[in-house]
Amino acid sequence: MFDNLYVVLILLFLTIFIFSSLPKIFKSPYLFFFKNIFASWKLFDVSDYKLIVKYKVSNKVTNNNEKFDELNWTEFQNKTSLSLSSILFNPKGNLMLYYKSNLLSLANELSEIEESGNSESLTIQENISYNILLKYVQKRIIDESKENSYISGINSLEDLRYVFKIVSIDSKNKIEEDILISPAYNINLL
Amino acid sequence: MTILGIDFYRLFLNADINLIYNLFINVFAIILILQTFELLNLSRYFIRDDKINGEILDEEKLNFDTNSNLIWDYNIIKSQYSNFNKSVRKIIDFFLIDQNFKKLLYANVLLSAILIVNNIITFFPINFIIIFLLIFIQLLISNRFGGSFNGASDSMIILILISILFFESDEVANLFDVTIKSNLNQKLSFIYLTFNVCNSYFSAGLVKVKEKNWLKGLALRIFLKESIVESKLKNKILDLLKIDIISKCACIFIILWEISIIFVIFMPNYLMIYLTFGLIFHFSNYLLFGLNRFFLLWIITYPILLYTSIHYLSTLGMCVL
């Protein structure tokens, strides 16, 4: 039955090609689980906009009214240098790459929510990518407050409140546009 | 075709398929172990730990010491399974929840190690089951990170495992006393992997053709500016890419290089030149963008591509041409 190798292969490849070209299929929850079997290689699409995250931290103790307006935005830095061994073992680099792809997914999901205008769709605070970014920003603030007490008079992490925003920068004209500004959050370790 | 004094065409023409396969599977298993250790190294970012140094911590210390690092909290991720029925959700929760997920990663290391030992001394003669379990674990791992922790390399790991599964399928055929004609499983395995690697290059090239930034030669500059890597080399290349003609040529060359795979795969002599550029391309991606997984997983498939091209596809290419 399977004597003709090429018939089998053509059928197999057609199946892979059809599945990988129909990403909508993976909206089904069970097929979503297997989506990596039918890989999409549509990588390296590039936009004219660079996405960055900025944040502000306020200290409840020294800043009673939590006047975020008076504080400057700090840019979320995401750079690393490579060592000889990182070609085999590069956890720090891969963590940063994940942060970047999470930020891109969030930006795509934001534009999808905006385009659909569907009031029943998830609010951004329920979005997975948003919540992961929130945790990233929180971790950065905790690390910085541990390393350099840049916020004076800090008693505990619970004294800190923060906001963050996603900024899109036009690569040609260097014009910055805020595409999302978060509400103010307390440090939440639960 | 001779590169560095080695006649690769003759080498792969006379090579034993089992030798190529065994070398490939061993290197792949080592890479799989390294990549799982990468995840274990990052585990404080996605696993809630109730013990540090074997000591159960009080609630306040526990929250500070462990949860301050937590980013991919399973409590966030699991909302993507909210449409699944309750029993399926329970099974997924069982495998992906904090400490169980860590055990799953250790199982991944153990199974990969058994795969290597098996290829040397046939310690546990059921590779088929090991590969099947590894595919299951990889699907769980990629879903634990929402499918986007190194999306492309996660997919490549699974595709390589499926191709190995084809290769080992004669074990199952033997169980049912079925003989697979003319090593069909081995051919299928190599051609399946070759097709997927070619598809990865071709699809990526096709996307770039539709992107105006790639055609105008701006894309590489934009990508490089956004790279996570800080190095002198990156800055020098960025300076070089500020010259429009160089930037445009580099972008067009990458597009042509990627798309041409669907022709070159049928011509082994040209394929060797193609893969030499591939080696430079992937290594540059590592140096400039930090994509070590993209380098390792694609490069190890090159011997399979060469073998498949010489033994199964070159005659087909002659017919087409």
The quaternary state of the protein chains shown equals heterodimer
Can you count the beta strands of chain B? 4
Estimated share of beta-strand residues of chain B: under 5%
The coarse silhouette of chain A is: globular
Q: What share of the residues of chain B lie within helices?
A: over 70%
What is the CA–CA distance across the termini of chain B? 20 Å
* Helicity of chain A, as a percent range: 25-40%
Mean pLDDT over the full residue set of chain A: 76
Spans of chain B of at least 5 consecutive residues whose pLDDT stays below 50 are none
Mean pLDDT of chain B: 86
What summary fits the major beta sheet of chain B?
2 strands, antiparallel
Radius of gyration computed on alpha carbons of chain B: 23 Å
Order of helices and strands of chain B: EEHHEEHHHHHHHHHHHHHHHH
Strand content of chain A: 15-25%
Give the count of helical stretches of chain A: 4
Task: Provide the domain count of chain B.
Answer: 1
Integer count of domains of chain A:
2
Report the span from N to C terminus of chain A: 59 Å
Overall SS class of chain B: mainly alpha
Number of DSSP helical runs of chain B: 18
- Unreliable spans of chain A are none
State the main characteristics.
heterodimer; A: alpha+beta; 5 strands; 35% helix; B: 321 residues; mainly alpha; two-stranded antiparallel sheet; 18 helices
Question: Would you spell out the secondary-structure blueprint of this structure?
Answer:
The complex is a heterodimer of chains A (190) and B (321).
Chain A: H1 5-21, H2 29-32, E1 49-59, E2 74-75, H3 91-116, H4 128-147, E3 160-170, E4 176-181, E5 185-186
Chain B: E1 2-3, E2 6-7, H1 8-13, H2 17-41, E3 51-52, E4 55-56, H3 59-65, H4 74-77, H5 86-96, H6 98-121, H7 127-144, H8 151-167, H9 169-175, H10 184-209, H11 212-215, H12 219-225, H13 232-241, H14 244-259, H15 261-264, H16 268-289, H17 292-299, H18 302-320
Antiparallel strand pairs in B: 1-2, 3-4
Helix pairs in contact in B: 2-6, 6-7, 7-8, 8-10, 8-17, 10-14, 10-18, 16-17, 16-18
